[in-house]
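Need the bound structure for S-adenosylmethionine, inputs here:
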Amino acid sequence: MKYIRSKKYETNQILEKMMGPNPLKLLEELLEHHRIPQRATVMDLGSGQGVTSVFLAREYGFRVFAADLWSSPTENKRFFDRMGLTTEQIIPIHADANDLPFAEEFFDAVISVDSYHYFGRDPEYLGKRLLPFVKHGGFLYIAIPGMKRDCHEDLPPELLLSWTPEQLDTIHDTVYWTNLIAQTEGIDLLSVREMESNEAAWNDWLACDNEYARNDRKTMEAGGGRYLNFIAVVLQRK
Ligand SMILES: C[S@@+](CC[C@H](N)C(=O)[O-])C[C@H]1O[C@@H](n2cnc3c(N)ncnc32)[C@H](O)[C@@H]1O
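Answer from helper R.:
Posting the output first, comments after.
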C-alpha cells in the first residue's frame, strides 16, 4: 500500500498521540473500497486519544462520535480544536462499549481500530450491545491485533517478553473471530482477513519513544512478530 492519506499525518502532534501500531495506516487499509455513504454519521469505537477520529473526519468527511473509555473527552476536544475540527464534525464522548449512550439505529457505521478485542470477545456483545445502534444496512469496519494461529495453550516465550498470558488472551486468529462473529444474528459477515499493513504499522510504533512501544520492542526484537498480525473484519447489519 502507498498510504497516500496516512502519510500526511506523520507529524509530532499525531505521533505523540499513538497508542499502538500506527492506527492510521491500519484505518486507511481497512477503509479501502469502503461502502459507507458520504457525510455518514459514524462512531469511532475505542477512539483513544482521537487520531483515528481526526482522520475519519478530515479524510472521509464523516461526522464522527469519538467514543472511548480510558481517554479524557476534554483532552480529546482540545486536540480536535487544535486540529481545526468543529463539534459539527467530531464529538468526543466518554463511553463504555458495553453500555453505549446512543439512540438505537443512530449510526451509518461503526469503525474500531485496535480496541474491539478488549470488549468484543463476549459472544453476545455484538448482537446485544453494539449492533442495535447501527442502522439497518449500516456497516462495521473493525481492525484488531491478532495471532496468525491461536496458541494460547503453548505460548511462545517471545510473546511473554512483553505481555502476560491474560493480555495475550485478547489476541486471536481469523478462525476465532470468524466463528465468534458469524454466530451473531442479523448481520452479513462480509470479510475477515489478515491485513497487509501489519508490518508498516508495527515499524512506525516501534520507532516511537513511548514506554508502551519500548515494552513491545522486547517481543518484536526477539522475533515474536512472526506470530502476530492485524485482522480486518467487515460486516453489515441486515
Ligand atoms: C490501543 S487503544 C486504541 C485507540 C485508538 N483506536 C487508536 O488506534 O489510536 C485501545 C482503546 O480501547 C479503549 N477501550 C478499551 N475498553 C473499552 C471499552 N469497554 N469501551 C470503550 N473503549 C474501550 C481504550 O479506552 C483505549 O483508548
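Comments: The chain is about 35% helix and 25% strand. The chain has one domain: 6-237.
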